[in-house]
Amino acid sequence: MINVFFRKYFDKWVTRRLPATKQVTLNSRNLFIFPSKAGIHFLISCFILFLLGTNYQNNLILLMVFFLCSFMVTCLLLSYQNLAKLTLTATDSEAQFAGQDCQFILRLIHAKHHAQDLTFCFQKGQSKLTSIVNDDSVYLYATSKNRGYFNPGRITLRSSFPFGLYNVWTHLDFDYQLLLYPQPLENTLQDLSSSEHNVAHSMGKSRLGVDQFSTLKSYQPGESLKSVAWKQVAQGRGWLTKQFEQFSGGDHVLDISRLNHLALETRLSFLCYHIIELEKKGLRYALILPNQKIEMGLGSVHKKRCLTALALFERVKNQS
């Protein structure tokens, strides 16, 4: 109970002291320094040596104690200077899929020297992937199982440079709001994506593509050499090119009402899978949701619009 109360109080205090921002420069106001476990043992050892030196009036032991204390103070200054004036900037992240490791990128701008021994992690949505720190950027990962807007919480930055006697840390809030699409779920429900009229109308129709070999035709100057039938050329049959075709499936209508017998998240995952597959095949599709209809279309903009509608369906904001 006490821990919960202290945690809430601490979170409120950190929110007031370190408000959300897209860019922050580290300084004495947002950095916290405390002795590490090794540092506490170091101080205890100095205190024991000091008692021995004063008890036996041994100046050599006292000299060693003063040297160790000055070394401790020097490490304190170096620990702060390692992170001071380091600027971190949050970059916008593209929408991703729920249930996967979401990537976030921070840009680093060093002052006069490169900061050493940096570790980054999110307070929420912990991922099995560890952060990757380069000279000018940091790649962080977090996981959320829910669609919608995802905020992985504050980023904890830690460093124990130079000798591990101090822990320098801070909790930074970059106010991430990453849009997560539903997790694609493969299914074989054909009536979900094709109307009977479109299927009957498109049976037997084909168009040029790359799916299946169709015929050989005479080579025309300017055509790609990759399509040349080199086997026939070697047999002396002249220059011929291979022609392929792919079958057209017509326009598709993705209607969520056809899956009312399933759970909502399952329906959205099925629709998400069909959108991705139809986009890969180059087939036009429309999306029908309650109180919302996206007309027939194709392309990255249309795909993004449909996936966004699925991600935000009956959900305004999701803090996972």
Written account of the structure:
The structure is a single chain. The protein folds into two domains: 174 residues, no CATH class; 122 residues, no CATH class. The protein starts with a helix and ends in a 9-residue tail after the last helix. The strands form five sheets. It has a five-stranded antiparallel beta sheet, with no helix packed on it. The longest helix has 25 residues. The chain has seven helices and 17 strands. The chain is α+β, with helices and mostly antiparallel strands. Strand 16 and strand 17 form a beta hairpin.
Summed up:
This protein has 320 residues and is an alpha+beta fold. Helices cover 32% and strands 28% of the residues.
